[in-house]
Amino acid sequence: MNSSRGMWSLGEKYFLKERPKHPYGRATTPNSDYAVSKFLGENSNVPVAKDMRGWEDSTSCWQLMERVPGTTLSEVQGNFTLEEHRTIGTELAEYLAEVRKFTSTKPEAPGGGPLRDTYFGARYDHVDFMTIDREEWWARTEPRLLQPLSLSQEKKKKFKESYPIKEGAKYVLSHGDIKSCNIMVKDGHVTGIIDWEHGGYRPDWWEWTEWRGRREATLKFIRDHP
């Protein structure tokens, strides 16, 4: 267990996760893991944690689930051949494409829960929710602008009008934090996609922006290995 959450293996079959409601004394963040895993388990072929059960007590949110077979991609990716990398990449792309077939008219978790906004004027030590209401977003964002006195009213107006979360836009089901430690593999194949706590219906470009720190390296690898 680390300082903000706990994880325990219960024999060979089950796994228990604890997530504090107020990590480091901060406000509670929404957790879509149970809602998304349950939804995909019932409505898709995407491999997710099975038999998941969730409950809360006064201090924590708990989840009990079957263990996903295999190990995380981050642990073993250095041992794979190029062909195995291609196979895993192809399978992952197919699963994520299936996830994105589920859509909504607004940003939300399956079942209607809120999604955390970590981009548009949000702050790490605050829990702000994605909203299609530009005025609501601007009311919390304007006071946080860096060097607000140096910004003209025209620049502020353009910035406000550029807010991209709008009613009627396309929102697709997304993982929200896809990376090698959230991908389970065994015998050269994907066996599970886990940790959907940031999952929900987000703009169709959202996943690509999440990869902004790894984008060039990923594209270079693809170009070098056609």
TrEMBL record:
This is Aminoglycoside phosphotransferase domain-containing protein. InterPro entries: AGP_Transferase (IPR051678), Aminoglycoside_PTrfase (IPR002575), Kinase-like_dom_sf (IPR011009). It comes from the Eukaryota. Residues 14-201 form the Aminoglycoside phosphotransferase domain. Pfam families: APH.
